[in-house]
Amino acid sequence: MRKAFVLLVMLTLVIMPMAAFAQTDGAAAIRFVHVVNGAPTVDVYVDGAIRYSALDFGQATPYLPIAAGSHQVTVTSAGNTAALWEQSIDAAADQALVAVASTAGSFTVFTDDLNPLPVGRARLTAIHAIADAGAVDVVLADGRPVIPNLAYNQPYGTLDVPVNTYELLVLPTGGALDGALIPPTPFGLATGTSYIILAYGTSASPAALLLSAPTLPNAEGSAGVRVVHAADGLKEVDVSANGTLLVPSLGYEAATEYLALPAGEYEITLTEPGDATAIVTTTVEVAGNMRYVIVASAAGGAPVISAFSTGAATITADEAVLSLINVAPNITAVASYGSAGPVQDTEVAGQESTSVVVTPTTQEIAISTDSPLGSGSGFGTGMFGGVFYDAVVSPGENAPVISALQPVSVPLTAGVPTAAIPAVVSAPAEVFATSTPQQPQPQVLPTADPNIAVATPTNSQPQPQILPPVQPTPTLPTARVILNPGANLHLRQYPSAEAFSLGLAPAGTVFRVLGREGAPEAPTFFTPTPTPVGAPTPTPFIDPAVGLGEDEDLVPFETWLFVEFDTPDGGIITAWVNAQYLEIRDTRGRLQKLKELPLIPRNRAGQQGGVAPGIAPTQNPFRNVNVATVQGLSPGANLHLRRFDDAQSESLALIPNGTAMIVLGRNATGDWLQVDYQGTIGWVAVPYVRVSYNEDEIDVLTIPVIGDSDSSGTPRPPGAPNVGVGGPPTDAPGDESGD
Fold first, then answer.
1. What is the third-level CATH fold of 223-404?
2. Are 683 and 673 in contact (CB under 8 A)?
């Protein structure tokens, strides 16, 4: 699974933009991730009511349903109400948002693509949340790039891949494998699940967290099926249904999300990873719109598979559901829970299950058994609306094992919360205290599983606590460039696509917005004279915002904005940019309406007073050189940059539509070009690029021929093919990944 199969798969991946999911009720969902170094355990409030408590460093919440619109999010230290920070987060209808806090004082909000996947496919992307590290590459164990040049706190596209176990590592962009921030780590990707590899911590102490969420079903009436490995004595297992691999390398006491499967009958088989020999097989029938938990356990030393229906697949946003599944014979399991009222107990006999609807609460939910050898477990953070809490009691070697599974939610939640849990604490916050020296505590190194930590001793000196920075209030609206990785936004001297380009701004660049395009102004040296009788008069400027309704706004692609940003040498660059490529927010962090921006004379010229970080001046790179520009790809698809002029050669990078590259030469047959793509030299297929010189299209055959060599100039190995047929980009018909 980690060799030939992966080699084939990774050569045909398609990167798609991260997108929202499509709920039926128009609500939204959000999950919070706490990876702020030095910060305490936190509580998260939304619009003044607690939505999740006791979120530890290196952990993430499940998805929590919220209404579409703007929400005030407040973060406090656990058990206190004084804010560590507050910010506004906007949620559009049918969006799945991932709010990642990697520096004290703010969440960075990403969107998760939970659109349907076919059975046998998973979705993968990554988030770089290591604040003191530069750009990183997510690569296979042999160094081939999967997600290259991932910038800190910037979104990346998604990759839909076959269900399998992939051994991946994270290293500084262009770095050697032995300098990896995250060492080679196997990630088992299950069907119908969206995964985000989140790298966090510091460059000196990095860690990885794997976020997962179920994608929407492909068909109406699908069931939600969760698979649990509780078979003591078995290590990892592959789980297949009707011969199709659903879950690879599922570890002991681990569980999947609720996977969307069409209603019907399934032959469920467990095997050792990569082995076709069945350990145990059983037939399970699932009904549409219902939820099932399939448990692999050990009975008398032999593995068995048991299936339990745990209720409807949907849940209201004001309710939590607790399911207790007991596969331990002759043992009674007990769940103790409550909210504002007295604690209630629910007993479950062996080989039975129960599900109860619980009012959201911050009180602990306890799970126990009547075995004298057993111990307790539970959900210490309480239970929150729109979330499923599953616990499994299974036979162990000496005593029953209680597994409080990771809480999960599904994108089928009905409605939005009418009332979240009210605040129940009022003690003053003791936040990041620095006045009293503390005894040194063991440093906990988070692992990919947020429920597991490994303690290692620190030095004997007490470590200073970190105060959240004071966030200055912006005095002007801000605009962030929203583009696919590798694409850049032109900074124009005037508000026109034909105007001179002052530079290129990559995705994530943030500008201060001075205003939008307005009527031209007369120069200060100009003295107007009367217009002669009968001479044509200039067309008067009419503000396009005039006459718009309260809920209407200007069309972004027809709107030009005048922006500025600071350069490292203390200068300021001003330029015109098109609004369709920007996310614009006002001084309070809310989405800014274009029509409310002030007018700037359209003949005010942008000026380049220096080069800001990450801003590339355009006067030199593509002037007086041959240029290849990627064109004709489907939206979201990318072109392979190959090591050789061969469609089967190693893919060095994936290049988005519209990207321009310097041409270094061509092969003898003229169907491949050697190019320089952001410092990486490789080959691209001619049918998918436009070749030009100073913007005039030229014949490929006028470009000099380069001898047979790889991207570093090394001669091609003897016998290596040079087929010269023009390898397809990732959106070509017949490509396994589709577009």
1. Immunoglobulin-like (2.60.40)
2. yes
What's the pTM value of the predicted model, to 2 decimals? 0.59
Domain range annotation of the chain: 4-214, 223-404, 490-601, 620-739
In b/e form, how buried is each residue of 76-101, taking b as 16+ CB within 10 angstroms?
A: bbebbbeebbebebbbeebbbbbbbb
Please report the DSSP string for 210-228 in residue order.
EEEEEPPPSSTTPEEEEEE
Tell me: the pLDDT tens digits for 215-267? 988 878 889 999 999 999 899 999 999 999 999 999 999 999 999 999 999 99
State the DSSP code for 6: H
Distance CA 478, CA 604 (A): 20
Token representation of residue 523 = 């120069």
Question: Greatest CA span in the chain, whole angstroms?
Answer: 106
Question: What is the full DSSP assignment across 233-298?
Answer: T---EEEEETTEEEEEEEPTT-B---EEE-SEEEEEEEE-TT--SEEEEEEEEE-TTEEEEEEEEE
Q: Which amino acid, residue 698?
A: I
DSSP, residue by residue, 524-535: TT----PPPTTP
Q: CATH number for the 620-739 domain, one of 2.40.30.20, 3.10.350.10, 2.30.30.40, 2.60.40.10?
A: 2.30.30.40
**Confidence (pLDDT) at 543:** 92
Count CB atoms within 10 A of the CB of residue 681.
Answer: 19
Q: What is the spatial distance between Cα 691 and Cα 270, in angstroms, rounded to a whole number? A: 53
CA 710 to each of CA 10, 61, 688: distance values in angstroms, whole numbers, following the listed order: 20, 46, 20
Question: Taking a C-beta distance cutoff of 8 angstroms, is the pair 727, 646 a contact?
Answer: yes
Mean pLDDT over each residue of the chain, to the nearest integer: 79
